[in-house]
Amino acid sequence: MYGTNGDKATLEWFAAKYQQRRPQTKTGAKLSPSPAISEVSSLRGSLSRKNSCCKMSRLMRPPFIDPTTGVAYDTDKGDFEGYLTKQSMWLRDWRRRFFILKGSRSFCAKTPYEAPHGMIDLSRCTTVKSADLKAHKKHSFEISTPETTYLLYADDEKSKDDWIGSVGRAIVRCSSTYVSRGQTHGAGNGANNAINEEEDSDDYSNSSNNPYFND
């Protein structure tokens, strides 16, 4: 057993040893983390941001499932996309939808990343043209098939013209003849050759000989 003086000396000895082991800092200053800890924290932050970017880049639009045939059509990364307002086929009211033009088909969905719920097969379409008078709406156009006429309108005149041009080119590619580099190709191998030609070499002029652009 230590006496009173012995107990005090022992406590002072332990206190001195403790002070030697502690990092020397100014009174009230916070201890800064070691370089190793800072590097690990920085690495974790970088990995977290990278994982978030990877998740966003993998976000894909679901396919359209044809309710009649059950065939799934890829709708991701369309050739031309944007919002249009379409007239309902049955109620005749107007609904804003996101349209995706891909290949020979046009799909519509409620939002850009929802699965589309409608499809227009452009290979069956005969014309696409302005329809302001018919729709009683500005910036309107129609896409016609032998059975149905679809009425839509864009947000402005430029968007309308862009859609008419994009849909028109898709219809021309699906038609039985293609005008490319001044020569007419049939719907067989010639059609495939025309589709593979560079886009700026195809003649999609708004002329009287091109029924897809005439009003």
Descriptive key words:
215 residues; 11 strands; 7-stranded antiparallel β-sheet; disordered C terminus; alpha+beta; elongated; two-stranded antiparallel sheet; single chain; 33% helix
The N- and C-terminal alpha carbons lie at a distance of: 112 Å
Structural class: alpha+beta
Radius of gyration: 34 Å
What's the tally of helices? Answer: 5
Inertia-based shape: elongated
Query: Fraction of residues in helices?
Result: 25-40%
Poorly predicted runs of 5 or more residues: 53-58, 177-215
How big a fraction of the residues is strand?
Answer: 15-25%
Order of helices and strands: HHEEEEEEEHEEHEEH
- Give the averaged pLDDT, no decimals: 73
DSSP strand count: 11
Strand order of the largest sheet: 6-5-4-3-9-8-7
Biggest beta-sheet profile: 7 strands, antiparallel
Model description:
The chain has 215 residues and is an alpha+beta fold. It is built from five helices and eleven strands; from the N terminus they run H-H-E-E-E-E-E-E-E-H-E-E-H-E-E-H. It has helices spanning 4-21, 35-57, 132-135, 157-174, 189-196, and strands spanning 64-65, 72-73, 80-87, 94-102, 105-109, 118-121, 127-130, 140-144, 149-153, 178-180, 183-185. The strands form three sheets. Strands 6-5-4-3-9-8-7 form a seven-stranded antiparallel sheet. A two-stranded antiparallel ribbon has the order 1-2. Strand 5 (105-109) and strand 6 (118-121) form a beta hairpin. It is elongated and about 105 Å long. The model is unreliable at 53-58 and 177-215 (pLDDT under 50).
